[in-house]
Structures are given as structure tokens and as C-alpha cells.
Specification:
Number of strands of chain A: 16
Order of helices and strands of chain A: HEEEEHEEEEEHEEHEEEEE
Largest sheet of chain A: 13 strands, antiparallel
CATH architecture of the largest domain in chain A: Beta Barrel
Distance between the termini of chain A: 38 Å
Number of helices of chain A: 4
Oligomer: homodimer
Structural class of chain A: mainly beta
Helix content of chain A: under 10%
CATH superfamily of the largest domain in chain A: Acyl-CoA thioesterase, double hotdog domain
Strand content of chain A: 35-45%
Largest interface: A-B, 53 and 53 residues
Shape of chain A: globular
CATH class of the largest domain in chain A: Mainly Beta
Number of domains of chain A: 2
CATH topology of the largest domain in chain A: Porin
């Protein structure tokens, strides 16, 4: 499917990240309220809209390394995406992209694409997927209800997220102090993961900092996402962690493992812990 | 000191990252061979040249989040830096920058600056500095000699690097298989660390992948650097790790802790392990 065709799948991710070319490397997208935390769209969702335009511009299929700096809060509704192809090589191609609303820049991206199916080289993995109870023994959203802040983010209904009960105590006001969340993740509407969706999925868990400090609004300053493999269908096992909350700044590292036990995406972001939006 | 004045310190870092404005947001720099691995300049050094021009352009002093995508191998000699201010807010300002040689783009950066001295907010740190023997009991460069590949990179003479002997076995052909390097780091010429130098210092150790797989050339595709604090004078304690070498792609995470035991910079990069340059 080219990015210019209407999404025929009926899946929310494809419908809500569709972009339409309007000439000269410019695209129109629509920021849906379905991926928001209160009035603020999730950063990974904004990234996925920008990458839909980048993907349609570059010759390689997989977003191996993506960096985004968030500049001002995105609103629901029309978004302009401007894509500048930077370099196309044999193995990788790179583009820059700007997301604007009413002429105000919301986010700036750099994205390097490659072809993970064509990658050749040594493999040594010295990490294991998170040890999780089976999904049916984890804490689903129906069990957790609204966030401790009282908010019930629309984005939660897009995912089937099952947190390891060992890392969901903060929902009940009892953070573990370890700064780590683990769980199972998939789209609620049955869409299978692919490399286009991983930059959103890797940012889909609640902030791990909620396991360290009382919740608030956690806007992302910068996120980098590395897509390391094409995911198999089924559940993704996730682990996110924050180790350094310093003067309100925090990093969050995330990993997604597919149903074959292969790590397929990792991200690191710098964010701020603010008291309310 | 403004970036337009000659570096009066006599320190190699300041002399070799100096940039001169040539109008319209354009700057000239000079890529010195003193920071190279063979014929290839270190990525953190290239980043530091670009950031010297960004720092002179933006109102905030500290590079809190920097992302760089490397596009083609940089050569020694003249480099053009083009800086585009993207947004200036109260707490943060952001710029994009391009580094070009002979019209060919070498690297594209996004950098968000802030003022770490003005940061206010909660602090919870759940990690500790690496446990290291004192510097005099670590493995210095005089003990390790050239790299296992036979190369003796010029950049090694810019730093006083003392590796924990538990992580320097790969020099003698005996990698530990843990994919982790730890050690002490400072500039060889006595220059103290600051937030301008941290984006280079955090990329100064040899690749941690050498502790997993036979050495080669490890070009960076993308690096993101978060500067988390203004470092105290003295040694930096470092830890770098690679956990996923997959089909030749690898991530490397690094942390620098200052002499007060405070984590001051962290980076993550995606690179390729290639057989020879």
C-alpha cells in the first residue's frame, strides 16, 4: 500500500497516521484525539505521522534510527509535514522532517531508513526478554481504571496492555521505587506490529518515572528510536526504565521483544516531570 | 569567551573545535587529524565542532539533548557548518545544523539547549557510579599499546584513559563477552570537563562491542547525547555497554560520572560493526 492510498485495513493506527501529499515534499496529516493523554497527543503517535511521510519519500523500508525533538504542544486536527530528503546511499537513506500547525513548528525529526531483511553481520546478544507472568495473570486496564491523577487517557483504549503486577503498584499509590515497568503490549484492534508501528509502540507504556515519583505530565524533549528487527505477529514483551530523575529531567529507556523472543525496538528519551499539564 | 574569539586556553579541545562565523548562520571549522581513528575523525569530535556553532547561536548554555545522524565519512580539513535556529523558548532553545565538506553533507544535527543551573524539580537517582579500582591500578594506554588491529589512533593521545583491568582483556585478544567497558577519563592536556566537552567525552572510550566480537571499524549511524549536569573538575568515571549486536548493527550506551559521583552525561548510539574501514 502506498501512503497515498486510503488505509484499507480499518485499523486505528493506519487510519490515524495517514498522510496525503500536497506537493513539494509537503504532506497533510490529521492528529486524532484517539492517541492522547488528556488534551496532549502521545509523542510516539506524532512521530508516526511524520514517519508516514518520510517512509513514502525514502527508498528503504525500515526506520533503523529516528530522532525527534518536540518543540511545542501539538493540537488535534490538521498537521503539515515537510520532508527534506538528506541523503540516499546503498544501505541507508536519511531525511529531515518538520511538523507544523498554523505555521508553528511542533516537532523536528531526523530519520535514517535501511532494509533490515538485507542486513548481514555478526550477532551476539547478551540480554534476555523480561520475565513476565502470562498475559492473563497481568494487570489489564480494566483492573487499573483511570490513572492515579484521575485522568483516563484515550490512548489507553488503543492498546491491550498487561502490566506485570510487580510493576503496577504505582496505580494504587504504591510505587516500587525501582523505576521500571514491564508488561505485554499489542494493539487493541488486532493490528499486528510492523516496523512502521514500532516507533509508536515503543512509547506506548505509561512513564516509568511514575514508579519513582508521583505522577504528573511528562512531556518528551527528545526521543531516539532504533528499530532492530521486523517483529513477528503477536504480543510484544516490554520493559521501560528510568534511573536518573535529576532536577525534574529524566531519561527513559524502553525495549520491545517480539513473540519469538527477539528484541525488535529500543528507545531512549529525555523528558521533564511537570506538575500537571 | 565567545566562539568567535581564538581559543586562549591552549587546550587541544578548544583549539580544534573553534568555529568562525562567515555570515547567514554559516561557520567555518577545521577538522584536525588529532581526534582520528586512522583516517576517520571520531564522531563525538565532529559533533563538538557542530555544537560550537550551535552554542554561539542559541541563548541557552547547556546542550541538554543532542541528536546526530552521520551521513558520509568526514575528512580532515575545512568543514562548513550551517546553523538554523528552530525555536527559542523560556527554558529551552533548539537548532538544526548541517556539516558539509565540498558541498557533501557529512552530518545533520538537532540540538536542544537549556540552563542546567536553573533546573528545578524532583531528584531520584537509583543507579551508582561504576565501581573502579583507583586510576593508578587501571590499565593506561602505555600498558595497552596499539589496538589489537595494529592501529594506534591519534585520538588516544588526547585523553588520559585508564580502563578497569576487568574490562581491558580484549586488548590482549581475550574479550570477556560481557560487552562492557569501565574506566577513568580526562583530557591528557589538563583541560577540565564542561558541558561543551561532554558530547565528545561521552564518545571517547573504545567501542564496547570489542568486548563482544573481534574489532573492526565501528561507524556511528546515529548518536543521542543527554547532558545531565555541569561536571566538577577531575576524573570522569565511565561505563559503556553494548547488549545487542544483531546482523552487524549494535547500540552502545554510555554514562559519565563526575568526581563528586554525579552522573553528568549519557549517550546512546546505533553503529555498524564492519570488517576494516
Amino acid at each position: 500500500m502506498s501512503a497515498t492510498e486510503p488505509a484499507a485495513t480499518g485499523h486505528a493506527f493506519d487510519a490515524d497516521t495517514q498522510v496525503t501529499p500536497v506537493g513539494d515534499g509537503r504532506w497533510h496529516g490529521e492528529v486524532s484525539p484517539r492517541w492522547s493523554i488528556g488534551q496532549y497527543p502521545n509523542g510516539g503517535y506524532i512521530l508516526a505521522i511524520g514517519l508516514a511521510a518520510v517512509r513514502a519519500t525514502l527508498p528503504h523500508p525500515d526506520p533503523v534510527a529516528v530522532s525527534a525533538h518536540f518543540l511545542s504542544p501539538t493540537e488535534h486536527g490538521l498537521v503539515d509535514v515537510e520532508v527534506e530528503p538528506v541523503r540516499a546511499g546503498r544501505a541507508h537513506s536519511t531525511a529531515a522532517a518538520r511538523l507544523l500547525q498554523g505555521g508553528t513548528e511542533r516537532a523536528r525529526l531526523l530519520a535514517t531508513y535501511g532494509d533490515l531483511a538485507a542486513a548481514r553481520g555478526p550477532t551476539v546478544v547478551i540480554a534476555s526478554p523480561p520475565l513476565l507472568p502470562p498475559p492473563e495473570e497481568c494487570t489489564g486496564q480494566e483492573a487499573t481504571g483511570p490513572l492515579p491523577s484521575g485522568l483516563d487517557p484515550a490512548i489507553r483504549r488503543r492498546f491491550d496492555l498487561r502490566l506485570d503486577p510487580a510493576t503496577s503498584g504505582w496505580f494504587a499509590g504504591a510505587p516500587s521505587g525501582r523505576g521500571e515497568l514491564r508488561g505485554w503490549l499489542r494493539f487493541a484492534d488486532g493490528r499486528e506490529p510492523d516496523t512502521a508501528a514500532l516507533p509508536l509502540l515503543v512509547d506506548a507504556l505509561p512513564p516509568a518515572v511514575f514508579d519513582l515519583a508521583t505522577g504528573g505530565w511528562v512531556p518528551t524533549i527528545e526521543i531516539s528510536v532504533y528499530v532492530r528487527g521486523r517483529p513477528a505477529p503477536g504480543w510484544l514483551a516490554c520493559r521501560t526504565a528510568t534511573r536518573f530523575l535529576m532536577d525534574g529531567y529524566l531519561e527513559e529507556d524502553a525495549e520491545l521483544w517480539d513473540s519469538r523472543g527477539r528484541m525488535v525496538a529500543q528507545s531512549r528519551q529525555l523528558a521533564r516531570l511537570n506538575r500537571g499539564p
